[in-house]
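Following the same procedure, sequence and fold were stored together, as reproduced here:

>
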Amino acid sequence: RNFDAMLKEIDRLAAIAQSFSRFGAPTGGGDVPLAAVDVAGVVEEVLALYEASDGPVGFERDLVAGLPGAQARDPELKEVVINLLENARAACVAGGVVRIEVAASRQSGVLLRVVDNGVGIPDGLLRKVFEPHFSTSSTGTGLGLAIVRRLVESWGGDVSLESAVGVGTVVTVQLLLWTGTPAARIQGAQG
């Protein structure tokens, strides 16, 4: 029992170290170029991991298949999806639901949305959610959403968040379609 607890703590510390490393790394993905990424496919891969565990929070999907590829980096998009799902799951109480949606957007891109019916974020804290080391929980590093924003913007995309206390939170990621060459960042894009 103690051995298992120690292994979990080592894993948690490794995740914290990785978060600090990821946030401190320059944007641009190193040697991995931007490419066309199947957003719905990435979401399915990540959800398979979440659905394999038997937890108190349910996961739902609403994914439009066959969308054109979005401008991103596959491993980084997985990291974004995991960070968003982890935040949403942590905000929910037992019996809560996290829904992830992928659809075409009105801006000729791909829209990724994570919706939870968790505790929500007070209005006074909403402007801080993307700041490094800010967290509404007592666990974690407070880097999840800062990393999400940094990665999404490095692909030319945009991320926004809406929340209401007692209702839940919606995080929207707007991605550009892959055109064969990297495109510029979207300013203030909405679904």
